């Protein structure tokens, strides 16, 4: 009896298939095809037109996923990866150089997110119910300094004559609206 031993591990110098790459990276095959179409990763084709990826593609995919997780756009990731060598695993220095170029961009994004977070507490209770009038969404709105929208509506209602809303279909009116 002959024993056949299947080995799933990939030797150091072998290329891997798209299925193996998907299994080892945790990324769907369709996403890998998308990354390849966008120029983020590269493969070669066999005589049977099957994709083969070098092992360093695993590190590139890890880099892509981490970059996406922190909000780096794919176009920026593509530009960064184009600066890396194609046929060898990027070194620690290669990765350090890339991350340094994004540091200020990420710091700016963090500051913007902190301002948004800090403003949300005020926005949740303001009652403006309008992105056009909200001080958070519309920071140059002069009326925002006078308070939330509902207070402004009441003040305007008192200073003008209001008439009931006329529904043309029924002729009825249920709300007062300032003209």
TrEMBL record:
<keyword id="KW-0804">Transcription</keyword>
<keyword id="KW-0238">DNA-binding</keyword>
<keyword id="KW-0411">Iron-sulfur</keyword>
<dbReference type="Pfam" id="PF00376">
    <property type="entry name" value="MerR"/>
</dbReference>
<feature type="domain" description="HTH merR-type">
    <location>
        <begin position="15"/>
        <end position="83"/>
    </location>
</feature>
<dbReference type="InterPro" id="IPR009061">
    <property type="entry name" value="DNA-bd_dom_put_sf"/>
</dbReference>
<keyword id="KW-0001">2Fe-2S</keyword>
<dbReference type="Pfam" id="PF09278">
    <property type="entry name" value="MerR-DNA-bind"/>
</dbReference>
<dbReference type="GO" id="GO:0003700">
    <property type="term" value="F:DNA-binding transcription factor activity"/>
</dbReference>
<keyword id="KW-0805">Transcription regulation</keyword>
<protein>
    <submittedName>
        <fullName>Redox-sensitive transcriptional activator SoxR</fullName>
    </submittedName>
</protein>
<dbReference type="GO" id="GO:0046872">
    <property type="term" value="F:metal ion binding"/>
</dbReference>
<dbReference type="GO" id="GO:0003677">
    <property type="term" value="F:DNA binding"/>
</dbReference>
<dbReference type="InterPro" id="IPR000551">
    <property type="entry name" value="MerR-type_HTH_dom"/>
</dbReference>
<keyword id="KW-0479">Metal-binding</keyword>
<dbReference type="InterPro" id="IPR015358">
    <property type="entry name" value="Tscrpt_reg_MerR_DNA-bd"/>
</dbReference>
<dbReference type="InterPro" id="IPR047057">
    <property type="entry name" value="MerR_fam"/>
</dbReference>
<dbReference type="InterPro" id="IPR010211">
    <property type="entry name" value="Redox-sen_tscrpt-act_SoxR"/>
</dbReference>
<keyword id="KW-0408">Iron</keyword>
<dbReference type="GO" id="GO:0051537">
    <property type="term" value="F:2 iron, 2 sulfur cluster binding"/>
</dbReference>
<dbReference type="GO" id="GO:0006979">
    <property type="term" value="P:response to oxidative stress"/>
</dbReference>
